[in-house]
Amino acid sequence: MDLQLVTSGQSHGPGIVAVVSGLPAGLHVDRDRMQCDLARRQAGYGRSPRQRIEQDTAEILGGLRHGTTLGGPVALIIANRDHANWGPAMSAWPVTTDELESVAARRWRKVNVPRPGHADLAGVMKYELDDVRNVLERASARETCARVAAGAMAKDLLAAVGIEVLGHVVQVGPVRAEAGAELAREDFARRADSQLECLDPAAEVAMLAAIDAARADQDTLGGVVEVRAFGCPPGLGSHTEPRLRLDARLAAAALAIQAMKGVEIGDGFANAALRGSQVHDELSFADDSFRRRSNRAGGIEGGMTNGEPVVVRIAMKPLPTLMRPLRTATIDTFEDATALVERSDTTAIAAAAVVAEAVVAFELARCVREKFGGDSIGDLAAAHRAYLDRIPWTPA
Ligand code: EPS
Predict the structure, then answer these.
(1) Which residues line the pocket of ligand 1, CB cutoff 6 A?
(2) Which one of 161, 169, 346, 392 is least enclosed by Cβ atoms within 10 Å?
């Protein structure tokens, strides 16, 4: 059974839609988890005033009854409250000039200045458009709220087989958190006290100062997030075909998040500078289970989980919408211009940790569906139990 997600919607349209197909029947969807993740995605330090307008909540349109999946696609919508301020400018159907002029001109006038670093210019050329807004509304990272809601359901599925996926911020601009090579699930409890989904309070002070400094300069900041998946049995993903390799799939899922530009599995980049004897994680066998003596591989060997925690790090570029805009040229008269100044986030790095957690959870849930099948969550859990009975591995 293939787990799939389709999203739809514009940043200032009526709402963002997600349709998730391939969930087994009988899965209890944790409403509080979904709401909590949606709120976490909005809450990080450095986000734009837009977040004071939005209060993301998923309205389920199909696929659930009394909180439990029925086996068909789950459809949901997260309303854009800001749509009330855009109305006719973002109407799905034709509107009159009078209706258009009832909203602020900057909302309905064609945008002819593409922003460097954004989808704007290639998007208008590729899709034969004469208004940058028709690109930017869909390119916007507002869409990630749908992936977070879908990821919450993926986490519910993973919980049924003992897998937990947790993300955190490890770098903001040049400020790095203390590396915690041996981080365990319990360590993530500290995240609740953070304004940046960060586990290192001392580094966070410097991170917050860096964000304040960037905001004062009307500039933006990127960073690095890390996602860890605990409880994965060996054998999610596969070495047998390139498209099934888990590291490749996680990298694709990670880079499909707006503004993500680099991915590392385990100590991928640091390992490149070392010798093999310093890199590969030695094996041991104790208490009926294979273990690795270290986890520099980040839990993946040969395109499959190896039974250690999966570790994925993702680099985010500074957001390209700048309050002090960069130079550009217009798409109609080709004259020098300055880029569109739109309200923007100074950094969305905390949100990135939540979104990264969601997409890693979704990709792992896809692997779980492939490996254990089942039309119901009971069948899936039984297949998982039978597999663990067969292999010489027990969860840590
Ligand atoms: C975004 C621009 C900002 C962000 C938005 C993504 O929106 P606006 O232009 O309305 O202020 O706040 O992110 C969200 C609304 C969200 O919920 O993540 C962009 O251009 O990508």
Answers:
(1) 11, 48, 50, 54, 82, 140-142, 145, 321, 342-345
(2) 392
